[in-house]
Amino acid sequence: MSKRAVLEVIALGAEDAVAAQVGGADRLELVTDMAADGLTPSRETFGRIRAAVGIPLRVMIRLADGFAAGDVDALVEAARGLRAEGADEFVLGFLDPAGGPDMAAVDRITAELDGCRWTFHRAIDRAADRDALRKRLADEPGLDTYLTAGSPAGVDTGLDVLAAEAARAGEPGYRQQILVGGGLRLDHLPRLKAAGLDAFHIGGAARPQGWNAPVSADAVREWRAAVDA
User: Fold this and answer.
1) Which of 196, 213, 195 is CA-nearest to residue 204?
2) What is the pTM of this model?
3) What pLDDT digit, counting tens, does each position of 169-192 carry?
4) What span, in angstroms and rounded, lies between the C-alpha atoms of 46 and 50?
5) 229 in helix, strand or coil?
6) CA-to-CA distance for 133 and 131, rounded, in angstroms?
7) What structural domains does the chain harbor?
8) Among 73, 72, 130, 80, which Cα is nearest to 101's?
9) Which residues contact 32 (CB under 8 A, 6 or more apart)?
10) Residue 203's CB: how many other CB atoms inside 10 A?
């Protein structure tokens, strides 16, 4: 029997989380402030969502817009607080001024995660050298996923890169799962699935009425059916 593809949905609160779970999401990415492309939610928000649903939750560690780490002490404190609240999966990713992975920031934060699984988010799409970034991060404890569109401009222009990286699965730096997200549409799925990609991330696509409205269970259900088709 083939393994079911992953469908991850962005949730801002418990209402989103419940709707996403009802619609068939496998996992949630928890954030706040989508005007800044997703920042760390409060411990209280995490606690409410954890109490509301039973599916895995990946919590964003990011305190400002952009891909620079900024105040690393504050990021470490946020990670420590979420761990104390019971969070055990995370999302993070920072670049240094040269466009490489900010290893000092990543290492300090992941030290707080104590081996928890985590996703390196779309900072990879802004990296100076994607391949070099992957190889530099290859042995980071807990890193099991890259959230990427294949391009800073989104999946439309990143399809070839995504397919090429999927073809390298198993190589050093390419053992992590590719989670496709960033302007992802239903019509992208056939090509992505044909390339062997099996994990998909949606945010606005789960909210037909826009970001000021909650996640629609029906929209998530439509994606679930398309991902599984």
Assistant:
1) 213
2) 0.96
3) 999 999 999 999 999 999 999 999
4) 6
5) coil
6) 5
7) 6-228 (3.20.20.380)
8) 130
9) 12, 38, 39, 40, 41, 42, 45
10) 22
